[in-house]
């Protein structure tokens, strides 16, 4: 397809690059070929300057190679995996009513402030204020920074506890949510039922369950390999978990909710 300083770029290379073009991106084969040529020119120049001998770059190349091989191996172990059955899809649908049959849409108006600025005085103002605009003016008077937003969320993307709390708040009520470094001073404007039938939800549920099965199969295979291998921790490596324990204590969304949210992203509209 092209020759760069005597080095061929083949049709197989071009086809491999075309397979990596994101779906929906409108590009011509010539544009992709020119991108490959540009990359080859940069690689050649980097080699002339002996950058491929830099220890950090060599390490990064080796790491990429290892990641590709590891991913390819796991794919061979999961590609023959059985697809989710209709019974499994129906069970998931029934076990997650807030995502499907009882899905709700919540409409709120919010003022987001830094949690460090959320004190007893702010909480008292939220209890006594008649409107969110009154709260905004009050914050400005005390030079507390805030960001106003109009938020429309559905119960599929929210923790169950928050859905339960919002379901019990009457329309027009002010409320607060403290989470991490940011907190919301909010006005509950409206809630609407927005159920999804099994027929509509089925493709995304199947996609999520397939992803979940692949993850479980990968973890099982890694576990099998670790059991069969002889692994020795050296140089006080057994103490490394003490450093990671700090990060582990940071509040995060439950794993199941996080993964479901990603796998069922298409159902959030």
Counting helices, strands and paired strands, the structural category is: alpha+beta
| Portion in helices | 40-55%
| Helical stretch tally | 10
Total domains: 3
Mean pLDDT: 86
Tell how many strands the DSSP assignment holds: 6
Instruction: Classify the fold: give the CATH topology of the largest domain.
Output: Chitinase A, domain 3
Strand content: 15-25%
- Parts with pLDDT < 50 across at least 5 consecutive residues: 245-269
Radius of gyration: 26 Å
Rounded to the nearest angstrom, the distance between the terminal CA atoms is 44 Å
Query: Any idea what the shape is?
Result: extended
Report strand order across the widest sheet: 4-3-6-5
Largest sheet: 4 strands, antiparallel
Provide the CATH architecture of the largest domain.
Roll
CATH class placement of the largest domain: Alpha Beta
Short description:
Helices cover 52% and strands 16% of the residues. It is of the alpha+beta class and 269 residues long. The protein folds into three domains: 2-78, no CATH class; 104-193, Chitinase A, domain 3 (Roll), CATH 3.10.50; 198-267, no CATH class.
